[in-house]
Amino acid sequence: MRERLTNWAGNIEFGTERLHRPRTLDELRKAVAGAGRLRVLGSGHSFNRLADTDGDLVSLADLPRTAEIAADRASVRIDGGMRYGDLAARLGAEGLAVHNMASLPHISVAGAVATATHGSGVRNGNLATAVSGCEILRADGDIVTLDRSSPDLPGAVVGLGALGVVTALTLDVVPAFDLRQYVYDDLPEAAVHEHLDEILSAGYSVSLFTRWTGTGIDQVWLKRSEPRKGDLFGARPADGPRHPVPGMPTASCTEQGGVTGPWHARLPHFRMEFTPSSGEELQSEWHVPRAAALAAIEAVAGLRERVAAVLQVCEIRTIAADGLWLSPNYERDSLALHFTWIADTEAVLPVVADLEEALAPFGARPHWGKIFTTTPSDLRAAYPRFADFAALAGRFDPNGAFRNPWLESLLGV
If we measure between CA atoms, which residue out of 388, 367, 312 comes closest to residue 112? Predict the structure, then answer.
């Protein structure tokens, strides 16, 4: 009897009959060669059928962990199964850092990069912007190595797993740095309207959390190196630790209260040593131009009651523009509106469709790994270089060994 294999949230049951867990590169090559079609399963944090397959799945979690720091200490080469929390431990021990991290340190680097997953900060690009090189195993067993001298790299980095198996990545690193994390309660609506840009620029990384049950912002999470005292545009300093979802235990959250700590213990919202819950949420996210930030927030506010009825919490963040072909932040500074829903797909999907309609005038681009109903044709139209990406995928994988129905619909093949 086949074991039921699902994503992290449990809303997707994978259609595969076989999950490979190779321990060596040779074993990985054999798995790829022996599969008619194959997809790579990262840490399972996609909420749609991006990682699903009508063939085999392969996990790189059992491959040897590799973190080779370059002689100039400006980059690190890692294996395709590395998680951010594990990478942070290795870099921290060497006095180095990556420029940013997502809310969860438990996610795989290759999976996060392939979907343009991000942290926050008006000057910080998404996590894929740190990639200076990648090594991709093709269906024919060859490994193609790309670096910044290659015109294909901007198309391959946010690759949705369509080109092959990413066996290694080279990431830019910087000297390790410390941050303080402050949380503020009850940011007034007037402050959002009058000082939104100043609030979003008040730290290295800034997140606004709201349940859309009131007119303001419930919490502001501010991560910065400099100490700070007093209110934040009318928001009060929290009188103790907070969880983004009120009422949830705060022990899993990274330390707050302005206590100085290393970058990897402040940039994520959650601690690596705590296993995140699963099966209790769904997620959606849309990216709009930062110039339209306030208008987009107001558009969501117009659906306040519909959204709040199926919402756990909404997080609002900024991401700097980049040149990666399938990045939602391609050539535009962005505001991301992230929604953590209740675990009820039937109730959530109509609200997702309403939000997409409300955000369409701003050219909203959905996060590739979240729940959305945008049509493949509309997705293709949202990316000026999509045709170039489709051609790149066709060149790397001419027989469609790494495709699935989800990708085929997106690529129009």
Answer: 367
